[in-house]
């Protein structure tokens, strides 16, 4: 059993921390530009369907595995399936989290830099070219590496404090504030002249814009946004007491994720079309559109600064979960200092993240299968490793984990019927793995 000092102090703290792990770059940064590059409304509809039918069941599964074992990811699979090879799922998750955090921290560094620039009023200016500003920031190797380093140092410090005093305390304050500022931004965005075109692009499905690759991206986005596939939520739920309903908690996290993604789209696309910007701009979309929107508001620089700081904190709550799974893997059994392990892990991730941070400057011409290091890492993690991890988890739930333990964990502290458990289990055993395989093969043009 976990020590009580290593547990969440409340149900709300767990839900907000889990939502913080899920929301962040996935919903706020990546979702808008992936939607813009893949046809708008049809992609959003697919994303919602995949989140509810595939992502949510997997999230419940990760919660069940973690609390059922009361261990971090690698040890959890060893505990639930001893003397077997299923611990590869936890190892896969730790490696995936490492790779994800190596490029995720680069974007975190960009937001950190923008936050620092916005405080003295160095972003919003008359006749400013925000696309050029983004290119200047990301094209400066010293600035991007410094941003990467500072972002990781913040992560290390918080993880060193542990679950209750580090991750939970920060999430309880920051997530509600971020939601409030997003609502303010949406209200302003939809009132721009020409905003309706952007709203229709985002909410009106046009399935002719979809390709097999788009469907794979929508599936990967649902996994990325919910932080499932790398057993991050296995580690988080291992700190959870038995008086919390896992299906209800997973449902709350999923709903919050969809709502924030909706708000992100409504904040971004009306501005994109109102100002004649390109919705398929790519990773820089958010950094170009936000200043445009805030520049049209009274006290825009102040609001931009506050929003960027909250956005930075939302990104941090996501990155905490990735560093936590790596740190806990090395401190679970052996009496190692959490602080020391966090610093060592952070240093290695920093070194691994340098090539991605230079993808817009010194290494811009270096390509892997036609992609920069940053884009190649993103593609590997989001569209291969995350679906692969989710497939392994579905197979573990469907064919290996003890069914009695599974049903007991599913049923604690909720009034859901046994029928709901059966539906969830059948989804995990058949629908989830088959969907992942079909979508992946379809994206390769094999079916």
Task: Kindly describe this structure.
- The chain is mainly alpha-helical.
- Helix content is 75%, strand content 0%.
- The chain has 18 helices and no strands.
- Helix 3 packs across helix 9.
- The relative contact order is 0.20.
- The model has no long low-confidence stretch (mean pLDDT 89).
Uncertain residue ranges: none
Portion in helices = over 70%
Under CATH at level 1, the class stands as: Mainly Alpha
Strand percentage lies at under 5%
The CATH topology annotation reads as Amino acid/polyamine transporter I
Average residue-wise pLDDT: 89
Q: Given the helix and strand composition, which structural class is it?
A: mainly alpha
Q: How many structural domains?
A: 1
The run of helices and strands is HHHHHHHHHHHHHHHHHH
The gross shape turns out to be globular
Main beta sheet: none
Subcellular location: Membrane
Membrane topology: Multi-pass membrane protein
Transmembrane segments: 12-31, 43-65, 86-113, 142-161, 173-195, 215-234, 255-277, 297-320, 341-359, 379-399, 420-444
Family: Belongs to the sodium:neurotransmitter symporter (SNF) (TC 2.A.22) family.
